[in-house]
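Example record used in the benchmark description.
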Amino acid sequence: MINFKNKNYIITGSTEGLGKLISIELSKLGANLILISRSEKKIKKVLNKCKNIHKHKICLIDLNDIEDIKNSLNKVLINNNQIDGVLHIAGGGLGVKSYAPKHKEYIRVFNLNLFSIFEINSTVIPLMKKNKKGVLLHVGSIASNESVGSLSYNVAKSSLSSYVRSLSKQISKHNICSTGISPGGFIFENNAMGRLKKNNKLVYDKFIKERLPRKKMPKAEELLPIIFMLLENNMMFSGNMISCDSAEGNFYKPYY
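Model output (structure tokens):
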């Protein structure tokens, strides 16, 4: 496994779900973290579960405030000469479920799932170029191919996959790996499936029965090995959003 000790990682969505889990686990492995969230209270709760709290930094950013992202991130990065990786974990449909979303609703979903990623990456890539290495790891969704989420969310995640591939064409020559994963449903404290299980157990159980061949909801912890592998800066994975959906997907669903 990669040696994470004293490696520097930026993590969005660090206070909930998969982002929270990754933050805690990377801290145990000796990494230095820059945790991004709009809630200082929530970040401090995560920090209290991390190892070596003094090594980590807080960056308060509302990912829907695109104009503020560069300024806020640059203030935190002013003394950082090296960023080894960015983990774009933040995402979600923001409750926009309409098949004909209003423009403002589209923008909110795209800001969170796509445009904020553009801003963070464009801020960090110059640092990675100087150091001739780095990993930009994006968490997409099976929704990019399956259309199982809301319309705005599906389109945003599909665009993210295209972005990861397109960006890789431009930055691979600098030994910067643009990659990511496209998970299906999985459960962790207060993530989408965690909330569904709590709020509508009937629908949660139906999802497992109808969507998951192994008839069991995957845990977020099962994603850690592939995420840690991708952080090794293996350029073979550049441009790819790796599907990890427990056979949930129906890309090649037979007609019978």
